[in-house]
Amino acid sequence: MSVLKLEHVSYRYAGTDKTILNDLNYTFEKGRVYSIVGRSGAGKTTLLSLLSGLAAPTDGKIYLEDKDINKIDKYEYRSKYVGVIFQSFNLLPKLTAMENVILSMDIAGKEYGDKKAHAMELLKKVSLGEEEASRRILKLSGGQQQRVAIARALSYNPEILLADEPTGNLDGETQAEIVKIFRQLAHEEGKCIILVTHSPEVAEASDIVYCL
Questions:
Q1: Would you tell me how many other CB atoms lie within 10 Å of the CB of residue 123?
Q2: Residue 1: CB atoms within 10 Å
Q3: Phi and psi for 6 in degrees, rounded to 5?
Q4: What predicted TM-score, i.e. pTM, was given to this entire model?
Q5: Which of 102, 119, 123, 199 gives the lowest tally of CB atoms within 10 Å of its CB?
Q6: Taking the domains of the chain in order of start, what are their residue ranges?
Q7: Residue 8: left (phi > 0), alpha (psi -120 to 50), or beta?
Q8: pLDDT tens for each residue of the chain, 212 residues long
């Protein structure tokens, strides 16, 4: 059963006739890694905005299981069902890796008996140890920052992870390590992973590729 489904979804900028996305009918299931590929300007990031609820389709509908996401409270949708990972990480540089994860837990309103222990468990899941957890973000490498961003997105245990060019700023070896994490989250924990990427290697490592 699909966790996300697009039915005849189109999008055009307000006040113009320019259609960015036209009649998309995609399904996304748990336990799989999806890559969205296409030339620059094809609407990949726009599609991610629609899936995250940051924008609404001009035509058509997007369903979370059997619910139209436009009828779900957007704060609830983004703090409960969907985790978003940005190419630029969007971490708070004055905080440590662990503090960034804990802050996300607080914003989502999640209650844990020991927040630090849970945050450390998430950081270990993305192969970061206690030393990295206690460092401020600017003291971490790009690959380490991306791992923190993934751990932060997992902090409220969403079913779906959306990532915009998650390996765009990383070298080949680090890219492979990040892709491995995404595959483990999908295949071992049943997450639905949706990646926007320009990388042929990332697309090849995905289970399903949608080309815009």
A1: 25
A2: 8
A3: -105, 130
A4: 0.91
A5: 199
A6: 2-211
A7: left
A8: 699 999 999 999 888 888 999 999 999 999 999 999 999 889 999 999 999 999 999 999 999 999 999 999 988 898 889 999 987 778 999 999 999 999 998 888 777 778 999 999 999 999 999 999 999 999 999 999 999 999 999 998 999 999 999 988 888 899 999 999 999 999 999 999 999 999 999 999 999 999 99
